[in-house]
Amino acid sequence: MKIIKFGGSSVANQTNIKKVFEILHQKNSQGDFAVVFSAFGGVTEVLLQSAQKAKTGDKTYLDDIKFQEERHFEIVKTMMPVQLQSPVLTYIKLRFNELEDLFHGIFLIKECSPRTLDYVGSFGERLSAYILTELLKLEGFPAVYLDARKVIRTNDRFGNAKVDFSISNDLIQDFFHQNPGLKVITGFIASTEKGETTTLGRSGSDYTAAIFASALNADALEIWTDVSGVMTSDPRLVYSAFTIPQLSYSEAMELSHFGAKVIFPATMQPAMKKGIPVYIKNTFEPEDVGTLINNDPPNGKLIKGISSISDISLLNIQGAGLIEVVGVSRRVFGSLAEASVNVILISQASSEHSICVAVRSTEAFLAKEAIEKEFLYEIKNGEMDLVQVMKDMAVVAAVGENMKRNPGASGRMFQALGQNNVNVFAIAQGSSELNISAVVSKADLQKALNALHEAFFLSDNKVLHLFLVGVGLIGKALIKMIAIQSEKLQRDNDLDIQIHGIANSRYMAFHEDGFDLSNCPAPEDASDAQKMNLDKFISQMDEMNFSNTVFVDCTASQDVAEIYERVLEAKIAIVTPNKKANSGSLEKYRELKRLAYKRGVKFLYETNVAAGLPVISTLQDLMLSGDKVIRIEAVLSGSMNYIFSEFENGLPFSEVVKQAKEKGYTEPDPRDDLSGMDVGRKILILGREAEQELHFEDISIQSMVPEDCVDIKDVQEFFDKLKTHDKEFEKLLEEAKQKGEKLRFMATLENGKAKVGLNSLDSSHPFYTLKGSDNMILFTTERYHDFPMIIRGPGAGADVTAAGVFADVIRLGNFSR
Ligand SMILES: NC(=O)C1=CN([C@@H]2O[C@H](COP(=O)(O)OP(=O)(O)OC[C@H]3O[C@@H](n4cnc5c(N)ncnc54)[C@H](O)[C@@H]3O)[C@@H](O)[C@H]2O)C=CC1
Ligand SMILES: N[C@@H](CC=O)C(=O)O
Ligand code: NA
Fold this sequence. Notes:
Helix content: 40-55%
CATH class of the largest domain: Alpha Beta
Distance between the termini: 50 Å
CATH architecture of the largest domain: 2-Layer Sandwich
Radius of gyration: 36 Å
Number of strands: 29
Largest sheet: 8 strands, mixed
CATH topology of the largest domain: Dihydrodipicolinate Reductase, domain 2
Structural class: alpha/beta
Mean pLDDT: 94
Strand order of the largest sheet: 3-4-2-1-7-9-10-8
Number of domains: 4
Bound molecules: 1,4-dihydronicotinamide adenine dinucleotide, the ligand N[C@@H](CC=O)C(=O)O, sodium ion
Shape: elongated
């Protein structure tokens, strides 16, 4: 024998009811069963509200019950042949007439006792189970209607009545013996010895089902609802949450205690006592496995689920007068109990200097008052401080019985929180080792849940959640590269990279699960594309509140660089090829580094200089290991090197500049390269990385942009104008050629001063042989004194730059492991 219970949403309308019938037809071949139904979705709530309306003299209760009556009629009229409808419609009509009389009484005397409310609350189930019995007969089932008030006996605590199991069990067994056929049972309702209607409290229909399962020693109890079982975490906050296949009763209790709405612990008690397995199944996805709750020993995962309670406050009770004084905690908790404050979490360190309790925020003030009143004398004498209240807190808890046998759960939990910069305000773990709870700030809740979910469930994979501003040449190449490499990274490096936000200067779009990278749309083509607004982009990134979030800036925009402080403040890492932030004021450069350090997040910008070549990281390593930079000599512009080396082969100057742009070597506006600004920025950044107090004014820059080209707005027009200067550049080339030299645009930094400009170099110079987009950097340092350290290779272009950005992102994955 099985007891199968369907919740209100499963029978909310004709379509859903048909789904329920399909499920029951399938059950038919699997042995004996009885069915428990809730009221049609939402009916009981409306009836109880209508009773309140009637009590306050609000006559619209009449409209509400009319509407509900119609709803019940409608189901019968659409699901039953006309000739059979009459008795069922009459039954409905009679019930609603009773209700109307009842409400009229409430309306007149302006009173509605808990006893009356229980009676009102019984109509929903009585109607649904009766109608469904008749419909099931039409489906060929030998259905027998059972009003559970006949067989479940309770005391008269209306609203939340206590069941007398010995009487109820007998009555249930008798009814089943005497009435063959498929019993169709009303959930939620029961009656007292005197025949007064009572209800079984929150999730009462589940409880009814468990009572029947226990009384009949059922083989199984199935709870059919609108979700596919108990999930590892709240899916609204943790997008990667999934259904837990099996839980022990205790685990299910712990998880449901924390607000997993699927089951209510008390309802399981009767089934649990008899060891009856409980299945949670989804009426709308019947093929889904669902969750099995039973007595089987816990297996597999260390932790089964991560749950949370938001909106709590933390009370700190402290003072020297508390140490080694017997009876303090009795007084604290006694005063809270007297004030009817429910304590959610308790923590006291063995120093006894403070006791910390978490309560619902709505009860925080009451709690503070109660404790302060109790300790009035101690507070007056300075033996105890006033109770501190920290608002806007939340509890996150890792739940699982396997913790008992395996050390390491708390290590993993607090490592994950720490690495994601989630501050923990209090911790509690009982010796049952079923749950470790931590109090965190409410603003960190989603991040904490995701971090824990990743740490315990995602097959040990680290997930980086990227938000990419600037889907241009480099941004697009980056997306492509991640798409190609992602399988290998997941397989060999346990690293999963998802992109949740994309933007260019016009549009932005977001995707909770991450865009499909092998087919990633342009921001303007994404399904929910919105006009780009940087402020909103950052807010949205912040709100999505993923752990391991990375802001990737692939623009050349000053505006975007201005937002870095806010990003780092939000404990979000930054990876960028954009040089604007690091080449602004020295204060800003230092502030960003300080902030990243303070917030414990990384700010990586290897591609600021020489694209993917390891220049910045190498210089940082030199500095960290105690070296000192004496001189830097470098060709730092891929486009300028391309231009001046290709130009030797006879093409006009303006033509080679155009080619450099087409090859993706130049800045979005190639005049940033020609003017020396880009190289100026790079040598400035290198100087700063070499711990020199370098300002942009300390750099003398020779611009190669002809004066009449400076102010032209349109890039194409600039190219036209540049053509008129081809001869001047040819002359420069000719002069160098005659001396057997080559033109190289380079930068030098020595004695706190930097110079950027065009040089004519003979064949003895290391830069003489550079080709194409090559960069070359010579570091002369205290250690590399006689011969400089040399880094050389292509230093511009979509692929080498995107690869450098990608490498920084992967580095983040290693840092945050
Ligand atoms: N091209 C190269 O070889 C290298 C480039 N870089 C740097 O990479 C960055 C990107 O360069 P490219 O991809 O070549 O430029 P691009 O012009 O192709 O792309 C820039 C993208 O940023 C977007 N954008 C601009 N301002 C924006 C704003 N305020 N908000 C949102 N989006 C905005 C644009 O719409 C465009 O999609 C630049 O900072 C550049 O200096 C660094 C090393 C090498
Ligand atoms: N435009 C730059 C590339 C980016 O840093 C160059 O030409 O080197
Ligand atoms: Na680099």
